[in-house]
Amino acid sequence: FIFLRIRYNSYPIYVTEGDRMRFRYMRHWINTGHSKTGWKVPTLLRISMDLLDDGLDNGCVFHKALERGDMIFANNAMLAHARDAFKNKPGQPPRHKVRAWLQVQKRDILNSHDDEELEAALTKNLLRGQTM
Asked: For the ranges 1-10, 46-55, 71-80, 82-91, which has the lowest average pLDDT?
């Protein structure tokens, strides 16, 4: 039964849907799925993931510890992202993360011509309380 669930849950790393491309890559789960089924990760897939990991590691544009109240907004379908491991500091309260799903209208993104206009479009949608 687990073999069918894992096989059914497989998907490509890159997918094009009309005029959009979606990138979804989680190496941990690729390796875990293979391990649970007893399948060996194919050599070419392992090499490809090594190259992709190297490219993503070298292309890091934001590497900073967030401070209390800091937020990051990212479109999972357009931006590859990861987080470094986190450990609570002794004697400090545990970290509290909040996750939100936001829906930004495609027309607002396409009609924005600079960072200020895009920020205004994002803020407008946040104030409307649109969530996914």
From this structure: 1-10
> pTM value?
0.57
Using alpha carbons, list the distances in angstroms from residue 95 to 67, 74, 81: 11, 20, 20
| C-alpha to C-alpha distance for 119 and 108, rounded to whole angstroms | 10
Helices (H), 65-114: 106-111
**Of 48, 67, 64, residue with least CA distance to 56:** 48
Q: Where are the extended beta strands (E) located within 3-103?
A: 14-17, 20-23
pLDDT tens for each residue of 24-43:
888 998 998 889 888 899 99
CA separation (Å) from 129 to 2, 111, 124?
39, 21, 9
